[in-house]
């Protein structure tokens, strides 16, 4: 890149809306984080936007704080998409090479990927990602990156990821109302994987598990390729609700009990340990058992990991991922969660912290910033067309026309082109 540029990421989550403003400084490898903000969210349930006005307002607040900190106005940003039913479809594209000398150009690759997304979509679905798995050039198969090779006919086997149209529309409307143009939409688990997983982990086999407030999303990689991804409608907010119901406290008190006294392993907590409710909230009274709180937490988190295990079984990878599972999201910060996950999944477990960024990192060095950190890294990847992170030969996300309330996903547009001076 010949010029410095700014990339912003906005993660619309069930519990929090987070923003990072990052600067790419010429000659520096890592993006510099120059603005960070996180605001509690309203208007989103289990990752699904239910009130566009509320979301637009909070996106505005989240962006404002990050703008103040960075000193740069945010006019456009990369957003995550989550919370909706994801569907995968395999598809193919075929084109004739454009240049007379038969050399495969960037344009040919864009065209063949464009062809692969010409599929029959259900009425309520939009394409959010098209991932090229492999290319075929005439008789040569299993090509990862055909750029510069010579031939006549180029084919691609692609994976198309679809999300719900209403979610895409609602993100578009909220962004539009907040006055921010959408550069790109990235599926939450893929964004989180971008800031967390190493090339080696993706090569060996790994599952990223993002435990948010209303959802748990996962992405499974092997041999550098995305094998599977899904978003489950249950998250760490359900743990809080279970505590509120089990102990008959308010949700606010239950959240504080969870954060201050919680553990994912009941066997680890002394049965005689008590929590004085009056210490948490003067309107509450009585002493509750810390062991009982841990039992409630353990039961719900065990259920979440069992659902993840079911997904791994579905793709034949249960217990078979050498790099194990990496936990991120606010839920991954629960005391002893790694031990519980290890018991249920039978895999080595790590807690993931975003990597690959420089600048002001004190807030960002946190598992719950995995998604938003991944969004700016995604932008950097698209901008510089680095092909290191995904282990995939080509990823193209689709642009949303943010000005249109129809919010339809329109066309392939390599984000990097937009940033070129
Ligand atoms: N230190 C902590 N210990 C345990 N849980 C925590 C901690 N910090 C945050 N959490 C929990 O993490 C959850 C929020 O996680 P996160 O911010 O990743 O969610 P989100 O991205 O807003 O939601 P989603 O991705 O599901 O839409 C809340 O349920 C919160 O209670
Ligand atoms: Mg999230």
Spell out the blueprint of helices and strands:
Blueprint: E1 5-12, E2 16-24, E3 31-40, E4 44-45, E5 48-49, H1 52-70, E6 76-81, E7 87-96, H2 106-116, E8 125-137, E9 140-143, E10 153-164, H3 165-177, E11 181-187, H4 188-196, H5 199-204, E12 206-211, E13 216-222, E14 225-232, H6 236-247, H7 251-261, E15 274-276, H8 277-280, E16 287-289, H9 290-314, E17 325-328, H10 337-345, E18 349-351, E19 357-359, H11 370-384, E20 394-400, E21 409-412, H12 415-419
Parallel strand pairs: 1-6, 3-19, 6-11, 12-17, 17-18
Antiparallel strand pairs: 1-2, 2-3, 4-5, 7-10, 8-9, 8-10, 8-20, 12-13, 13-14, 15-16, 20-21
Helix pairs in contact: 1-3, 4-11, 6-7, 6-9, 9-10
The chain binds adenosine-5'-triphosphate (ATP) and magnesium ion.
Magnesium ion binds next to loops.
């Amino acid at each position: 890149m010949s010029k410095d540029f700014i990339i912003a990421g906005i993660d619309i989550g069930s519990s929090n809306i987070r923003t990072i403003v990052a600067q790419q400084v010429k000659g520096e490898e890592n993006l510099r984080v120059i603005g960070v903000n996180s605001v509690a969210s309203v208007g989103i349930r289990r990752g699904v936007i239910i009130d566009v006005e509320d979301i637009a307002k909070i996106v505005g607040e989240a962006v404002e704080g990050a703008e103040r900190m960075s000193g740069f106005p945010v006019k456009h940003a990369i957003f995550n998409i989550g919370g909706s039913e994801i569907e995968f479809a395999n598809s193919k594209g075929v084109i004739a090479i454009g240049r007379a000398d038969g050399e495969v150009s960037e344009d040919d690759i864009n065209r063949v990927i464009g062809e692969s997304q010409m599929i029959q979509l259900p009425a309520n679905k939009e394409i959010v990602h098209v991932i090229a798995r492999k290319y075929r050039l005439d008789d040569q198969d299993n090509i990862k990156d055909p750029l510069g090779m010579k031939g006549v006919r180029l084919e691609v086997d692609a994976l198309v990821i679809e999300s719900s149209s209403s979610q895409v529309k609602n993100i578009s409307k909220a962004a539009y109302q907040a006055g921010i143009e959408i550069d790109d939409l990235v599926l939450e688990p893929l964004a989180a994987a971008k800031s967390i997983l190493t090339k080696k982990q993706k090569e060996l086999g790994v599952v990223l598990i993002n435990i948010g407030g209303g959802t748990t999303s996962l992405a499974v990689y092997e041999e550098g390729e995305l094998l599977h991804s899904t978003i489950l409608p249950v998250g760490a907010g359900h743990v809080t609700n279970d505590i509120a119901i089990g102990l008959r406290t308010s949700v606010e008190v239950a959240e504080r009990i969870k954060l201050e006294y919680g553990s994912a392993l009941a066997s680890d907590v002394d049965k005689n340990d008590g929590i004085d409710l009056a210490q948490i909230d003067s309107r509450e009274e009585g002493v509750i058992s810390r062991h009982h709180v841990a039992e409630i937490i353990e039961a719900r988190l065990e259920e979440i990991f069992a659902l993840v295990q079911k997904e791994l079984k579905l793709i034949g990878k249960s217990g078979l991922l050498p790099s194990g599972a990496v936990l991120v999201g606010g839920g991954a910060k629960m005391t002893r969660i790694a031990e519980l996950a290890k018991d249920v999944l039978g895999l080595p477990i790590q807690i993931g912290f975003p990597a690959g960024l420089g600048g002001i990192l004190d807030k960002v060095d946190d598992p719950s910033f995995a998604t938003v950190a991944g969004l700016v890294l995604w932008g950097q990847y698209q901008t510089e067309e680095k092909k290191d992170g995904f282990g995939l030969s080509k990823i193209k996300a689709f642009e949303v026309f943010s000005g249109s309330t129809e919010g339809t996903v329109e066309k392939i547009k390599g984000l990097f082109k937009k940033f070129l001076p």
